[in-house]
Design goal:
Nucleotidyltransferase, domain 5; 4 helices
Length: 141
């Protein structure tokens, strides 16, 4: 099962893709936010078709206490929109600390700040998607 990981941001959307067996997640691209969610979702739909994706997994930014705050409420609203506009099932997965993990790995690789800013969103999407792929009971999310 091939999955597309989506890290929603206010200015950019990080995208990751699993291998066809649904085992390994890799960073794919970053989409600049358009004028509307519908426009952004059209771009995601194009990736679904291009890569023959079976499901989409969206990162849910829970608070550090594991609760739903304003950012997670906004993401849940957008996930509902995606569910009705995309042709494949849409799941969510806790994305706490994915951006921090992505930044730390890039710092260890001695990437400069400008290079990190360009790719952090797609790496965070890959970290989140890999967590979902590793999750034992992913069908319930």
């Amino acid at each position: 099962m091939r999955a597309l990981g989506v890290d929603l941001g206010s200015r950019r959307i990080g995208i990751a893709l699993s291998d066809p067996s649904g085992t390994i997640a890799s960073p794919l691209t970053v989409i600049a936010r358009g004028a509307s969610h519908a426009q952004d979702h059209q771009q995601i739909a194009g990736l679904i078709t291009e890569y023959k994706v079976d499901c989409v997994v969206v990162g849910l930014p829970l608070t550090m206490a594991g609760t739903i705050g304003p950012a997670a409420r906004g993401a849940l609203d957008e996930i509902k929109e995606m569910t009705s506009s995309l042709s494949v099932p849409v799941h969510w997965h806790d994305e706490r600390l994915t951006t921090k993990t992505a930044n730390e790995s890039m710092l260890q690789a001695k990437m400069n700040a400008q290079a990190r800013r360009r790719i952090v969103d797609k790496i965070a999407a890959a970290v989140m998607l890999q967590g979902w792929l590793n999750h034992a009971d992913r069908a319930k999310s």
